[in-house]
Every structure is written in C-alpha cells, then in structure tokens.
Design goal:
By secondary structure, the chain is of the alpha/beta class. It is built from 22 helices and 16 strands. The chain has helices at 46-53, 57-66, 81-89, 102-114, 128-133, 135-147, 162-167, 196-217, 243-251, 268-274, 287-295, 307-322, 326-346, 362-371, 390-398, 409-419, 428-436, 444-447, 455-459, 463-470, 473-482, 503-525; strands spanning 7-8, 94-99, 122-123, 155-160, 177-178, 181-187, 220-221, 232-236, 257-262, 278-281, 299-301, 352-357, 375-381, 402-405, 423-426, 441-443. The strands form four sheets. The chain has a five-stranded mixed β-sheet, with helices on both faces. It has a five-stranded parallel β-sheet with strand order 14-13-12-15-16, sandwiched between helices. Strands 9-8-10-11 form a four-stranded parallel β-sheet, sandwiched between helices. Helix 9 (243-251) links the parallel strand 8 and strand 9 (257-262). The chain is flat and about 75 Å long.
C-alpha cells in the first residue's frame, strides 16, 4: 500500500464490494464430518484431521505457522475463541455471530457477559444434517444478511468454532460486504489456536487486512479527532488504560504522538493505526496483525518503556525508528529515567517470585519486578517466542531468569516446587497449587496485569500488592495447618467415616480406557 493514508473529507468510507451471495449455498462441497457430541472439546486429532479433509487445511497450516505449538497440543487456558469474541464485543457498531456447538456458545456467551459485554452474541444453531449437507452455511448467510444494517453496524464478525471448522463450513464464501456492512469470517478452533490471547490476533489481523485493502482502494474515514500533525505510533496490545497516556508523554519530547491502541474500539481507528509510521508491539504475539503492518510498510518495535533499563532501551529504539537525533533521545531519557529510578528505590520488593500467565505481558512484568529488587528465577508464558519478545527474554536471561515460552501448567507447577518462591503469580490452578503448600499466590490477570506498568507510575504500582502478599506467608502456613487432614481430590472434606474409594471400580474403568485405546491404535494401523 501507499506510505500515506488518504482520508475522505466527507467522512464517507467506500467499502470494497464482494461477490453476490444469493446463490452462495449452491454447489457447496458436502462434509463427511458428523457432529458427534461424545467427542468433547478439543478431542484429540479427530477434528484436526476432519478439518484438513474438508478444505480447511490451508487455514490450519497458516495457524501452525503463526502460532507454533509447544509441548502440549491443546489449549490449557479457556476456550481460545473467547479472545476473538472479546475483541469483537469491545468494538462499537460491530455485531458478533458464533457458529458452533450449543454448549460452546453458551459458555462463551456466559464468560463474555461475566467480563462486561453489553450486547448480545449471535448464534446460528445446527445439527448433523444441516452440517453435512451445507445447510448450515446457508443459515449463516441468511443470518448475516438479516444483521447487515448500515444504520446499526460497520461490520459483522462470524466465527466458526471447532465443529464447523472441522466440517469445513466455508466462511470465505460469504460476501465481503452487504448493504455497505463489512462481513468478516474467521475460524477459531480449539485444536488449531493454542491460546485465547492469539485468537485476539486472528480477528485483529483479519480486520486490519480488510482496512488495509480499503485504504489501498481510496480515501477512507478520518479519525474522530482528526489526523495528528505529528509522526505517530500505533500501540499493539491490551493494557492498563493509563499506560498509553504515559507512553504518549514519554515520546512527546521526541516530537512524536501516540495513535490508536489495537485491538481497536471502532473501525476508523484501524485506518488511523495504518497511518502511523511505527507500531509499538507492547504485546509480542500479534503475528497476523504485525504482518499487515509490515505489508503496509510500517516498522515494528518490541518491548515497552517498563522499568529503568526497559524505558531507556525502548526510547532509543523508537528514536532510531523515526530517525530522531541521539541528543534529543538522550534529553527525553533524562526527563523520565530519574523519576523511574526514584520510584523503584522508594517502592522496593523483597522476595523470590515465580511468574506465569497467558496474557502476553509476563516478560514485561518480570522486568519490572526485578528492577524493583525482587528475585525472579522463572517466567512462564503460554504465548510463543517471537522476534518482538527477543530483547525482553535476553534481558531476563542476563538476570538469571529462566524464560519458558509456550509453558504448560506442568512447567509452572514444577517451577514452584523447584525454586521454592516466597510468592507464586500465575493462573488459577497455579495459585491453587501454591496455596495448597501454604505459600502466597496472586492471580496474574486480575491482580497484576490490571495495573499500570509504564513509566514512574508503573514503577511503584506493584510493590504494595506484592509485598502484602509475601508478608502473608506465615498466615498461609497457619491456614494449611488448620486444614491439615481434610483430604484432597475425591477425598476432600470432613467425613463421618472413611471415604468409600472403591479401587475396584477405578481398575475396571481403567481397563475400559485401555481397551478403547488399543482399538483406536488398531484402527489407525488399518
């Protein structure tokens, strides 16, 4: 695309026209995959093989390249589709439609409203007959046509969950637009997308791709606040609301300004993001989105202005990307680094901490903890290693920290047992494991990542909650002693007599599982 985004002064955006969809259902390849409800969520390789056989192999190959798997081949966090669902639900004038098993749609709808969604989630139901005959695609097409009202929506997002993806429901055959409303179809199967964080990238990248094509086609809608008169930076990654403002204050002495934060909140922010000369990949896992910026000729800069070294290095990288004179960069560093150093000094953290999560900001938080004085022997992130995370990983390694990309729950639990930390920060089962040992634990998503990280504000934001948690270790040990002897797993609780364990039932059931496994292996050989 061109180096500059052109805006329509009348604020009218021309949407790229798609192919008519009146007969889109005719001649569709019929699927040989039946919706067997006994398969369950992420059922082994069954759905992946079905998807590859139903013309979705190209999608799965792209996901395998963008989101390489780790030691485990299934998501260990919540359903990945929650990530893309969350991105769509946060955007103004965007309708969201799910196509998948009713139980999956129920769960995703529930958790989206638990996290504050204020709009309905569309659903196109199906059964085995409509799935294998292609009628499901026709139902989706009809639902999209019914929703596509330009008075209410800029875009409609349709998401295939596991079963429709495995069946090969071809969302690519939907028109690009209906009545001026953009139609975006994506596949987010649990068997092809490792984390819900990366599912955010799938939708964010698909939308940016659509917006980039619109920019190439001609003038587009200008940002609500108008075009910035200074060179600007797009910010990639969900973060604490104050962080973009802190980041903007840091780059102002360089003669720069901040642009939109992606994932975006409204469609025209995508145009403004493409109009930025550089994208700051605060969260490093947005592979598909960064590919769109690269296609638009925009440079990406990794890491973030977190802690003392992080801020100094990030300002240097941004200055280099824009060709800002080194003296001007040094002046900006001298404006902010002393206050960051003072904040770190006044808010020390004393203790050994293991850190894990699936948000994508784990390495940044670890840097801030170490700068605050904490010992962090282990950092685990469910996200993959990327070019944008390389500098943070190298800095942590120099500090003696083991960084585990695509970490599994087993990795995180083993780190707690091996390093004996004063505090374990992680996901719910990680915190549970720590507390079962009488060790303090903090849930990463709600208590750590929901705090400012950048600048002087970030430097002092973690100390209070971290130190308060570490100081509770004696109280946690007392609680462990209080509950000693109540049992665990299926014997947990207070029993009037001895628990009825029935090991004979366990042995009998295990024999059934072993027999089924042998039968499946024999079938593979045939």
């Amino acid at each position: 695309m061109s180096k500059e985004v052109t805006y329509d002064t009348a604020a009218d955006a021309e949407v790229i026209k798609g192919h008519p969809a009146e007969n889109a259902g005719e001649g569709l390849p019929q699927s040989d995959f039946t919706a067997d409800q006994s398969l369950g969520c992420h059922s082994g390789n069954t759905m992946a093989e079905a998807a590859a056989n139903n013309q979705n192999s190209e999608i799965l190959e792209k996901y395998a390249e963008d989101y390489p798997l780790g030691p485990h081949d299934k998501p260990q966090s919540m359903c990945p589709a929650f990530g893309s669902l969350r991105v769509g639900l946060r955007m103004r004038r965007v309708a969201t439609v799910l196509s998948g098993s009713a139980c999956c749609v129920y769960g995703l709808s529930f958790v989206s409203h638990f996290y504050g969604a204020r709009r309905s989630v569309g659903y196109v139901p199906f059964n085995s007959e409509t799935l294998v005959t292609g009628k499901l695609f026709e139902d989706i097409r009809d639902a999209v046509h019914e929703l596509a009202d330009p008075d209410h929506y800029d875009a409609v997002v349709v998401t295939n969950l596991c079963v429709p993806t495995a069946s090969g429901v071809p969302l690519r055959l939907l028109p690009n637009e209906i009545n001026g409303v953009r139609i975006i179809g994506i596949d987010v199967p649990g068997f092809g997308v490792p984390t819900h964080a990366e599912a955010k990238d799938i939708l964010a990248g698909a939308m940016l791709n659509f917006a980039r094509q619109e920019v190439e086609a001609g003038p587009v809608q200008a940002p609500v606040g108008g075009k910035n008169d200074r060179p600007s930076i797009a910010i990639l990654g969900e973060m604490f609301p104050a962080d973009p403002m802190v980041l903007g204050a840091m780059i102002e002495p360089l003669g720069l300004a901040t642009g939109p934060v992606l994932p975006a909140r409204e469609w025209r922010e995508l145009y403004a993001a493409l109009d930025c000369q550089v994208v700051a990949a605060i969260h490093p896992f947005y592979t598909a989105t960064l590919r769109e910026f690269d296609a638009a000729g925009r440079q990406a800069v990794g890491s973030a202005p977190v802690g003392y070294d992080g801020t100094a290095n990030w300002l240097s990288s941004i200055g280099e990307a824009f060709g800002v004179p080194s003296k001007q960069v040094a002046k900006a560093q001298n404006m902010f680094l002393p206050s960051i150093r003072e904040a770190l000094k006044n808010n020390p953290i004393n203790g050994k901490i293991t850190l894990s999560g699936y948000e994508g900001s784990e390495l940044l938080v670890a840097r801030l903890l170490i700068d605050s004085g904490a010992e962090v022997p282990y950092v685990g992130t469910a996200c993959p290693k990327t070019e944008m995370s390389a500098s943070d990983a190298a800095w942590l390694n120099e500090k003696g920290t083991v960084v585990k990309f695509r970490a599994s729950l087993e990795d995180d639990l083993a780190a707690i047992d091996a390093f004996d930390p004063d505090l374990a920060i992680g996901t719910t089962p990680v915190v549970q494991h720590a507390k079962e040992q009488g060790r303090p634990g903090l849930y990463f998503t709600n208590l750590v990542s929901a705090r400012p990280l950048m600048g002087a504000a970030g430097a002092g934001s973690l100390a209070q909650v971290i130190n308060a948690a570490i100081s509770n270790r004696e109280r946690m040990a007392d609680l462990k002693g209080f509950f000693e002897g109540v049992g665990s797993d299926d014997t947990a609780g207070v029993w009037e007599g001895s628990p009825n364990l029935r090991p004979d039932f366990r042995a009998q059931h295990q024999k059934k599982l072993d027999k089924a496994a042998r039968a499946a292996k024999a079938q593979e050989m045939i």
